[in-house]
Design goal:
Blueprint lengths: L1 E3 L7 H12 L15 E5 L7 E7 L2 E12 L10 E8 L7 E3 L4 H17 L8 E3 L3 E13 L4 H14 L2 E9 L4 E12 L6 E9 L2 E4 L3 H4 L4 E8 L4 E8 L5 H27 L2
Parallel strand pairs: 5-8
Antiparallel strand pairs: 1-6, 2-3, 3-4, 4-8, 7-8, 9-10, 11-12, 11-13, 13-14
Amino acid sequence: MSKTMEQPLIPRIKYNAILNIISRGYHIDKRPVTSYRPIEIVYGVAPKAEGSALVRLGNTQILAGVKLEVGQPYPDTPDEGAIVVNAEYIPAASPTFEPGPPDENAIELARIIDRSIRESKAIPLDKLCIIPGKKVWIVWLDIYILDYDGNIVDASMLASMAALSNTYIPYFEIVDQHTGIVKVNKDQKVSPLPINKYVVTVTTYKIGDVLVIDPTAEEESLAQHRIAVSIDEEKRIVGLQKMGLGALTEKELDEIISLSMSKAEELITILKKSRSSS
């Protein structure tokens, strides 16, 4: 369990120095402001889970794990499985994270990921039905922030999709169709979790008067606000979340959408290449 805190204030001299660099079109690590740090995806890092992946985005590290359990469907969707997303800020990931129950930041992160997966229909939930109206697969997706150095949302979405694409449905046997008794053997993997499409999130930060992609933690602490845009393989916007105070002009919003579209294609390509080579 964890609780996040507000970003600490940084010295005025350093604040001005970072703003000056960003105003020239670069991150403090000399990348262009619209480029991502190196991305590394490692699959199967949690062997006891049905699926898992570790994403390194610069010095930010996110672990996503998937567990499958047999459960009852929701009353309004008796023929569909379900997905439950949880996010955890590990206290050791940053001096600004405190032990305790998940706060609004962790809850907001989980909701962004959950909504992106649901609205894009990345997972065909109808294919997770075992006995209509009685038993379905429940997909538990847990996200752990292991090391924090900015841009948690984009890294978490990458880790989530990577973990889901690495998930296998275990062997199961319907013992009694009428009573809904199902026997599961998790030691035996049967088939991959069905995935319709990939979905990614591109978060754009406004720092000073500049729109920035993938800031470090220091840069992120200077941002007035940010917008996370979730986009699927079909180039559809399936989610949009604004975080922080401040307003955007119509021109800035158009720039953010255009930038998000191009960067989403880049992230989806990285996901596909990493999966094919794993």
